[in-house]
Each structure stands twice: as structure tokens, then as C-alpha cells.
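yo, C1q domain-containing protein is done. seq:
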Amino acid sequence: MIWKEFQNLKAKMAVLEQQNEDLLSRVFTAPVSGVYFSRFYAHCHGGRRMAVSLFKNDQRQCSVYSNLPQTNGNAANAVVLNLQKGDEMYTRLWEETWVFDDQNSYTSFSGFLLFTL
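structure:
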């Protein structure tokens, strides 16, 4: 059973140099208990520090990091998690870090339900 990309939770944002904003301002809430696969990709331009973490109920599950690459930086990570109905998942930028995205979807967050419990 596949569900909408975390309720259309695609990382589409305009990142402003003066602000440190969350990669996503929305949260995915598990509609049913089960085992879920989720992944995220992040992109930054050269000379920019990029760091993004995936959280489950305010607990960091995994992260990606790129420290001032000379050219564009890309990173990805994925997890398989047991979620109970109502558990929340979301991604967050670390302080003083940056990501880039545009219509080509260089930065994204998605997943699907593997099986119910």
C-alpha cells in the first residue's frame, strides 16, 4: 500500500540567506500503524554548508551533511521505521545551514508504507 508522498510533502521552498528556516514546515502523521520506508535528498550550491535531519516524534533518526563543497553538494539518506498511528515524521535544517530547490526537485522528502501492523 503506497500513500501520497507524505501528503504531498515535497520539499519545495525558497531559502533566504538571511533566514534559517525548517526544510519543511509540515509534518507527516502516520494514518495507520505499520512499517514505513522514507527517504530524503538535499542539494546545496558550492561554498554553502548543508545539513538536514529526519525526525520521528522529535527524535533524530538520520542526517545528511555537506561542509562547504567546492561545487554543488548532494546528499541522501533513508530509513525503515516502525510507526504507530499518530507518530509524526518531518525533516529539519540544522542551524546556519542551507539547501536549494527549484522546479527540478533537487531537494525532496518522500516515502511509503511497506506493510501494516
